[in-house]
From TrEMBL:
This is Class I SAM-dependent methyltransferase. PANTHER family: METHYLTRANSF_11 DOMAIN-CONTAINING PROTEIN (PTHR44942), METHYLTRANSFERASE TYPE 11 DOMAIN-CONTAINING PROTEIN (PTHR44942:SF4). One of its GO terms (molecular function) is methyltransferase activity. The keyword Kinase does not apply. Keywords: Methyltransferase, Transferase. Gene3D superfamilies: Vaccinia Virus protein VP39. Pfam families: Methyltransf_25 (PF13649). GO terms for biological process: methylation.
Length: 278
C-alpha cells in the first residue's frame, strides 16, 4: 500500500461525514484522469456468475461480470414490475457501459446518462455517438441538472455509495415520473442487511417512494472480484505509482482493506427497487 494512499485514508477519516463523500468524489475524478480504467466500459466490482449472453456479446464480452451487475439492476430485478420504460436515466453513468446495455435491453427508449466526472462524460459522449437515442450530461447526483418528473425509469450502479442515501433518493424521486421505477445498487462497510433494508424503506418513504425489493448481493459481488482479479491487476500495473495504492483498494484487490472487509464479512452490497406512486 502506497504512502500516498495511507495519507489519504488518515486525512479522510478526520473529515465530517458529508465532506468524506465529497472527498471521495474528488478522488474518483482524479483517478479517472490517470488510470487506464477509462479505456474500459465499466467501473464497478461486478456480479457472478456472469450471464452467458453477455460473455458472447461485444463490447460486454470484455467485462461480462461488470455488465452482469448492470443487467441485474436495469432488467432482472424490475422485469416483473409494471411501468413505462420510454425515458431512462443512469445516475453515475461513468464511461457509458450501462447506457449501452440499457439501449440493448430497451432499444425504443430514450436514455440519458449523468456523471460528475468531466473526463468520463467526455469519453462517454464520444463512445455513444452511434446511438441517436442517448444523451450524456455533466452533473452531480445531489443536484441533477434535469427537470422534475422527466424519467419513467432510473437506474444506478454504485453512485449512491458516494452520495448520502437520503440525498440520492430525494433527488432521484424528484426527476422520476409518477408511476416510475428506481433501481440501484449500493455498498457499505460494517453494515447489516436487515438494518439497511429498514433504513432504505424509511428514507424511500420520506422521498415519496415505495420500497418494492431489496436484495443482498454481497456474495455475488465478492465472487466477481475474486474471479476478475487477474484482469484488474493487469490494469493497475499501468497506473502511475503514486496512485497505485489507491487504485488497488478502489479495485478491491487482495491484500487491501476493502478486500479484507469482504473476506471478514464486514462488507455489504445490496440492490434496491422502489416505485413512485402514480
Amino acid at each position: 500500500m502506497s504512502a500516498l494512499y495511507e495519507m489519504k485514508r488518515r486525512f479522510q477519516r478526520k473529515l465530517p461525514k458529508a465532506w468524506q463523500h465529497r472527498f471521495q468524489e474528488a478522488i474518483y475524478v482524479l483517478l479517472y484522469r490517470v488510470s487506464p480504467a477509462r479505456k474500459q466500459n465499466f467501473f464497478n466490482s461486478g456480479y457472478a456468475p456472469a450471464l452467458a449472453e453477455l460473455e458472447a456479446m461485444p463490447p460486454f464480452d470484455r467485462e461480462p461480470l461488470q455488465a452482469t451487475l448492470y443487467d441485474v439492476v436495469l432488467r432482472q430485478l424490475v422485469d416483473d414490475i409494471p411501468g413505462a420504460r420510454g425515458t431512462i436515466l443512469d445516475i453515475g453513468c461513468g464511461l457509458g457501459g450501462g447506457i449501452r446495455l440499457a439501449s440493448v435491453r430497451y432499444p425504443e427508449s430514450k436514455v440519458t446518462g449523468v456523471d460528475i466526472n468531466a473526463t468520463a462524460v467526455k469519453v462517454c459522449r464520444k463512445r455513444m455517438k452511434d446511438l441517436s437515442n442517448v444523451t450524456v450530461t455533466l452533473g452531480n447526483g445531489r443536484a441533477l441538472p434535469l427537470p422534475d418528473a422527466a424519467f419513467d425509469f432510473i437506474f444506478s450502479v454504485g453512485a449512491a455509495s458516494y452520495i448520502s442515501l437520503p440525498e440520492f433518493l430525494q433527488e432521484a424521486s424528484r426527476v422520476l415520473k409518477p408511476g416510475g421505477t428506481l433501481s440501484f445498487s449500493v455498498g457499505y462497510t460494517d453494515a447489516q442487511f436487515e438494518q439497511h433494508r429498514q433504513m432504505v424503506e424509511n428514507q424511500a418513504r420520506k422521498a415519496g417512494l415505495t420500497l418494492r425489493r431489496a436484495v443482498d448481493i454481497t456474495e455475488n459481488v465478492f465472487a466477481a472480484i475474486a474471479e476478475d482479479t487477474p484482469r484488474r491487476q493487469a490494469l493497475i500495473d499501468r497506473v502511475p505509482w503514486p496512485f497505485r495504492g489507491y487504485a488497488l483498494n478502489w479495485a478491491d484487490m487482495p491484500g487491501t482493506p476493502r478486500y479484507q472487509e469482504y473476506a471478514d464479512g464486514r462488507r455489504l452490497d445490496y440492490a434496491v427497487v422502489c416505485t413512485k406512486d402514480a
